[in-house]
Amino acid sequence: MLRKLADNRNPASLAARMRRRRFALFDELLSRLPGAIRILDVGGTPDFWRVMGFERSMVSVTLLNEAPLEVNSTGCMCVVGDARNMPEFKDQEFDVVFSNSVIEHVGAFADQQAMASEIRRVGQRYFVQTPNRYFPVEPHFLVPFFQFLPLSVRAAWLERRDVGWYAKAASYEAALRDVQRIRLLSRAEFQRLFPQGRLFTERFCGLAKSFVIYRGWERA
User: Fold this and answer.
1) Do 34 and 58 share a domain, yes or no?
2) 30 Cβ partners below 8 Å, 6+ apart?
């Protein structure tokens, strides 16, 4: 089974299939909301919404990222900001806050707590996904149990070669920054960040590959 889990020949295809299944759940929840809907996508891109084939005339999507993005035909609005601190948005400003595979990239657990707090503050509802720390294959570097190796070992590996989605780093210091920026969450930690949310587990080969947590749809 481990060989199957670690088969990197077509990781993009697996990721795409899981994203589409996840987005189908989100789209079903979204269909329960009447009238115009304002969505904040924390860390998202216009291409994500284009690839998902999302077309709703009464839905506006705002993308929040650390760096500017090019806007394409999806019509998304792009905003530069920090997921951990969003003073540009009022309390409950958005009908929905959406975030896909981002919260594991913002830093230490305290940074993840700050992001979760801001998501809960600015959104009337939320839908957040993150990979499972205890899935055997690390989802960014695509190496079995890579997440449990010492930081120095992970950085040294990335300094020497391409690893998964990451190209070979220019230096050990650059490699160390790359591996330090990813902190995978366990189920228990994710639920601590969103204690009132409903948890959905995404599985592959019977194992929990990632988690989705959502809240607020009962008010629809």
Assistant:
1) yes
2) 37, 56, 59, 96
Q: Per-residue pLDDT tens for 123-142?
A: 999 999 999 999 999 999 99
Annotate 73-99 with b (16+ C-beta within 10 A) or e (fewer).
ebebebeebbbbebeebeeebbbbbbb
- Could you tell me if 217 and 26 are in contact, meaning their C-beta atoms sit under 8 angstroms apart? no
Is 198 within a domain?
Answer: yes
What span, in angstroms and rounded, lies between the C-alpha atoms of 128 and 41? Answer: 10
Q: Tell me how far apart the alpha carbons of residues 184 and 101 are, in angstroms, rounded to a whole number.
A: 10
Q: ∠75-80-84 over CA atoms, to 5°?
A: 120
Query: 65 and 151, same structural domain?
Result: no
* Ramachandran angles phi, psi of 198, nearest 5°: -95, 125
* Tally of domains in the chain: 2
Cα distances (angstroms) measured from residue 188 to each of 124, 199, 206: 23, 11, 19
Distance CA 83, CA 116 (A): 9
Q: What is the CATH number of the domain that holds 85?
A: 3.40.50.150
Determine contact, residues 65/41, Cβ cutoff 8 Å: no
β strands within 104-163, DSSP E: 126-131
Phi and psi at residue 197, in whole multiples of 5°? -85, 160
Same domain, 166 and 77: no
Tens digit of each residue's pLDDT (9 = 90 or more) over 172-193: 999 999 999 999 999 999 999 9
HSE at residue 51, side-chain half, CA atoms within 13 A, is: 12
